Amino acid sequence: MQEMTIGQLAAAAQVNVETVRYYHRRGLLPAPERPMGGIRRYPPTALTRLRFIKRSQSLGFSLDDVQALLSLDDGRACSAARAIGEHKLADVQQRIQTLRSLEGALQGLVRRCARSKGKKVTCPLIEALM
Q: Which pLDDT score, from 0 to 100, does residue 56 have?
């Protein structure tokens, strides 16, 4: 793969050009040198890095987490990267537990609504939310 302009890089990574610029400002993506009177050209590794950032975000990692993971990408800090992953896993597991509890509560309210259908009573779902 050859070097790309910022527009080509953004299109290849399926992000907006402003996203690339934002990642520059955050220090997540190094900006290549601008030749005298020329346009910056990004190496193929920039696309790999952008895809890493987007995949990490899709898994729920914050940009701070991504930055920490990128700083550990030297092959020697796997335990630190694992710790970040374990923290994210615990967070996801907690959210799943909360969602399961919410699911159970909503199932009960929906069942109560179904039983009161046609009766002149306050809707149990609305009543519970009041």
A: 92
